[in-house]
Amino acid sequence: MKLVSINSLFLIRNILLKNLYKLNLFVTYRCNSKCKICNIWKYTNFNDIELSGDEIVKIFKNLRGRIRWLNLTGGEPFLRDDLYEIVFAAIRIMKPLFINIPTNGLLPQQVENLVRKIERHCVKNTNIVISVSVDDIYERDDNLRGVSGAYKMAIETFNILSSSKIIEAYFQVNISGYNIGHIEEVIEELLRHKKIIITFAHKMDLFRNFDTTMTIENFKSEAIKFIDKYISRFWRINGFDSVVFLMYLKGMRYFLLNGKLPVRCTAGISTLTIDPFGNVLPCPYKIKSVLNVRDCEYNPLKYYTGAVKKRVLLENYDCNLCWQNCEAIPSILLHPIKSLSRLL
Ligand code: SF4
Ligand code: SF4
């Protein structure tokens, strides 16, 4: 049987058994963008030392056979000179079905280098998805990102990714108070280049953005109106292979209306999160460490058990802080019946 089919079976088995299958690995918190909605770029503590490539390889070895979905995120992941080595170590050691990497698109040359190397190695059994963040169009996007020429570079990056037969490229639009007023214009423009992932801006520890009034909870009725309109033409835009994304959008509608998640959050059950300094976090958005992989021979699962795991699950059990796709999609998959009944 082909490796990809075996991997798919393992993924389904892990989802059904409520086992771990997804690793959110922040490869850096450094960022070369200065987004208005996220303050990561301001608050990075450069006294902490990021995990080296060798340390990350040790983690991968200890998670071999467990991880089917790897989210390599940041900050801006392409600021790491060794991103290519990390991607290849993951493919070689963990053989995930999916690797997704978000980028702000400000480093087209680095993205092109990675794409060409991936093409040279003919990666077959891992689907690599790279999403380019664009929150508005033309100068308005430059203004939101605080970087002159940001939009042009993001389009260039997207075109490089789209030219590859191996990589799946998306635009990722984060909806907030800054763009909700003209979001349909943004979506129409980006649809000219095809695929879009939509997310919504939340106030979160990770983004250090508690002082902003521009996150989505302050624009609920506008966001619901947009979601309803988008859903009405969903199949035409996204096609029939995007049911989970449709459920994510409907889940967002539910979250905005009810102030709680449509299904319990799966963070810490199906997913494991490690920050750039080796801290194991309760979820990608809470930055309080529960242990550090450097203190447990780079084997988070050895200590992420018993009381430590119980504490995380207890903290996340009734958490209703966000409906972000990193955890929302695994949450939908973990509760398929409830999700289908509430969200379709
Ligand atoms: S939203 Fe992304 S690109 Fe913008 S500052 Fe935060 S991490 Fe960087
Ligand atoms: S809802 Fe889940 S992902 Fe969001 S903050 Fe709570 S535990 Fe984290």
Write the layout of secondary structure elements.
Elements: H1 3-16, E1 22-26, H2 40-43, H3 53-62, E2 69-73, H4 83-93, E3 98-103, H5 108-120, E4 127-133, H6 138-145, H7 150-162, E5 167-175, H8 183-191, E6 196-200, H9 220-232, H10 234-238, H11 243-258, E7 271-274, E8 279-281, E9 291-292, H12 300-303, H13 306-317, H14 325-334, H15 336-343
Parallel strand pairs: 1-2, 1-7, 2-3, 3-4, 4-5, 5-6
Antiparallel strand pairs: 7-8, 8-9
CATH superfamily: Aldolase class I
| Mean pLDDT across residues | 92
Q: CATH fold name, please?
A: TIM Barrel
Which strand order spans the largest sheet, edge to edge or round the barrel? 6-5-4-3-2-1-7-8-9
User: What structural category do the secondary elements indicate?
Assistant: alpha/beta
The span between the termini is 34 Å
Number of helices: 15
Count of spatially separate domains: 1
Give a short synopsis of this structure.
With 344 residues, the chain is α/β, with parallel strands linked by helices. It has one domain (3-343): Alpha-Beta Barrel (TIM Barrel), CATH 3.20.20.70. 44% of the residues lie in helices and 13% in strands.
